[in-house]
Each structure stands twice: as C-alpha cells, then as structure tokens.
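Memo to structure team: turn this sequence into structure tokens by end of day. - J.P.
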Amino acid sequence: MSALGALLGQRLRRDRWQLVLWVGGTALLAVAAIGGVQQSYGTEADRQEVLAAVAANPVIMLFRGLPSGAELDAFTLFLILPFLAMMAAFMSSFLAVRHTRMDEELGRAELVAATPAGRAAPLAATVLHGLLANVVLAALVTASFAGAGYTPLGSLVSGLASAGVGLVFLGVGLVAAQLMRTSRGANSLGVWVLLVSFLVCGLGNALGTPSTDLQRIESSGLTWLSPFGWAENSRPFADDAWWPLALCAVVAIALTALAVVLQRARDLDGSFIAERAGRLDAPATLGSPIGLVWRLSRGSVVGWAIGGLLTGVLATSLGSVIDQIGTKIPAVEQLFAALSKNGSLEQGMVVIFFTIVGVLAACAAVQTVTRARQEETHGTAEQVLAAPVDRVRWLASFLAIALVAAVAVCAAAVLGAWLGAQAKGADASLAWDALVAGTGQLAAAAVFLVLTALVFVLAPRLTIALGWVLVLVALLLGMFGPLFQLPDWVTNLSPVAVTPIATTDGVDVKGLWWLLAIVVAGGALALGLMRRRELAAGD
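Reply from structure team:
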C-alpha cells in the first residue's frame, strides 16, 4: 500500500498541470455552452425549429448529440454532451498510455518492478489516477450546470455521463498499452477506437426514429455499440436515466480487468501485437534526416489527410440543410452571416467546417513536431546527431514534414469540398470559397507548428503537453466562440478564427499577414535557438 500511495502521488504530481488543463477546459466548455445557448437560442420556438430541421436532416447528428426536447437544459446537452465526453475520453486514454507503455519504453517500469512494488502496483496506481481525474471532471461539469440553475439531478447525470465515457477510454488506453509495442502505437489505437466510437454513435443517432413532433429522436441499435451512445441515452434533463451509465461502468471494469490479465501474460516491455518487421536493406531515402522523419510520420499524415477530405466534403454538401435552418431561425442566420462577412449561409458553412480543417491540420503539424521530443527522450535523436547531422538540420526536417502534413490536410479538404459541391450540384463558387479558407487555415496550422517548435527548443519537457493544449484552446475558441457569441477579441485569440475568407466583395484577408509574420519569425527563432541547445533527456 505504501508503494501504491507513492506511485499515485508521483502520477498526480507529474500530471498536475495537464489535468488542470484537461479538466478545467472541459468545465469551461460546459460553462460556455450554457451562456451561448441562452444567447443564440433563447426562445423555445428557435430550439424547436432547430430540432425539427435536425430530425429532417439527420446527417447533422454526426456532430451533435441525441435530441431529447426543446427545453433549454436538454437542448444545451444535445449540443455539447458529445464534446464533453470526447474531452474526458482523450484525457483518460492518453493518461493510461503515458503511465504504462511509455514508462516501459523509457525504462521506468523496469526500475519500479525491481522494487518491492513489483509490476502490479504501477497499473493499479494508474487506474486510481484515472478514476480520480474523471471524478473531478464529473464534479466540475455537474457544478457548471447546477450553478447555471439547471436541475441538480440532470446536472449530476451530465457530469457522470461525461466521466463514464472517460472511464471506458481509460480502460481502452490500458488495453492498448498491453497490445502495442510503443506508446505511439498505443495512443494511435486509442484514438482510432475513440473516433470510430464517435462515428458509430453519430450514425446510430442519424438512423434513429424521430417523434411525431420532431423534438425527440430514439436512437437505433447501432448507437448502443458505442460508449458515446450510452452517455447520450442517459438523456440528462429529460429522462435522467442511470442504467445506460451502468454500461460504461461495466465495460470500464471489464477492460481494466483485461489489461491486468494481459499484463500478467506478457514479459516486461513485450507486447501482443509485434512491430512490423523492417526491410533487410534500408531505402536510400533514410540516408537523410528528412527521409527518416517522413518514414516515421507518413502513416499519421495520411490519417489526418483523410479526416480533412471528409470534412471538406461535408462543408459543401450540407448547403440545403443550412438553408432550411437559417431561413427559419434569425439567430442562426446572423451567425452564418457574421462568419461569412454578410455572405451566404453556404459560405458561412464553409467557414465553420474549414475551421475544423484548420484544427486537423494543426494536429497533424503538432504531432509531427512532438515526434522530435519523443525521439529525444527515447535516445534515438542522439544516434542521428552522432552522424554528420547538426541540430538545426535535424529540427528543420521535422518542421518541413510538419508543414507537408498541414498542406496535405488542407489540400485534401479543398478537394473534398469540390467533390461535395459537384455531388450536390451546389454553386461552383463554393469551391473557390473552400480554396480561400483552406489556404488561410494552412497559415493558421503553421503558427501552431512554429509555436510547438519554440516550446521544444525553450522548454522541451513541456513540448507534448503544451503543444496539444494550444491546439485545444484554438479548437474551443475557434469553433465555439462564434456559436456561443463570445467577444470578438476572445475568439480572435485563436489563429483558426482570423484566417482569410471569401466574401461577396472579394477576399477578406483578416489576420493573414500577422499569421505569416509569426510563422516566419517563430520558425527562424526556433532554428536559431536550436543551434545552441543541448539534448534534453527525460520526460
């Protein structure tokens, strides 16, 4: 027990700032949703029109929750619950891998196993750590809704639903860490399970049965294959059902037990899914640092580009849906008009979806740059730099491939927008709007690239945590700022919110020149400082 307490304290200390950002960010998102819905959809008639349009066009439910009525509190959860649950899921999955597989990679687990703590205590400490993090998240989400005057029971169900999904993905992360050979592979597996679960839930809701008044939808059986579906079917502030959340608890316990069994059945630093065997002879491209970085990153670049392609398709293929909603609800029409600088509703839709593209491109770029930190902590960077490769050239290789990743995502999104416009017979000018928006979001993604590089040079231990936090903040401000009518100066703190857009009068460059100036100056500063920076081992 003393070893378990010491390990738990070590995890809490190591993750204190990351958990503050994840948990605090989730609570702030709930608070922003409350204020935004009250401002944008203040009347029940507005909310009824939105739900009727959703029932008639269920593709919208791929990105929202399960409608349970037009009451203010239930409508708020329809808009925000999937994202609260997703935040908890990402936090928990990354936490599980960080303290299991990553510790094995870095040799920490072997040191702990050599003490009286053995191999079981670290896993138990990680489970307790994840449980505490989700309990705090549930408490803050509950307090956010209850503090706004929503019913206490519905507020509690909202918090437990968010944390319930988090606990399921804590188990997913623990199992992935047993299956995969590297922390990178385990995190990738966890993210793919999360995204597929989210999509399955959305499809299940889209295939559901609407009520006669179009204010409520009963999800199809497909939804019950996803923990997001279990959380949404608890229907906070409508049914306040507890039993779907019991499914989250049962699956979380089962996955944790499976992780324990798998750990006992394998050797330390072993895995059940072996790494793919390499070629006997290395290709010529691996003779340069940029070729090596591309080899490490190409899989993730393709994955992010596919996400950009699908987002681009949706950006131009939902025009009829937006027309139906916007022409009936003045608040929605004003939102899209503001986003498109008084352009059409379809132009506003392109702006919103390409904000998502900017976030995806930023994720691709940040993930590539953070690989430099991973290579450094794993000791492989030292081997590369022992060859005739200087530190500036080594870092520049990661920055170059990160830029390629961002370009791939934005280009795929523009292609998808063109395909979506062609398939729906939409106005051909939407493809031009998408090209302008995609080019601007590329500049925004490049800002995150250089900011992460600067963190890597100046505070290497914060590279991974701070790099992803910057993207998370941009996501919250860029996507939810206009929807929740936050002040312009707050929304404009996100680079993805100040990129150029096409308007009826031409192109509004907005903050493009500032973004480019930050990219050039930040990139030059990062490479210049790298010349004098020594390798920083450890996590």
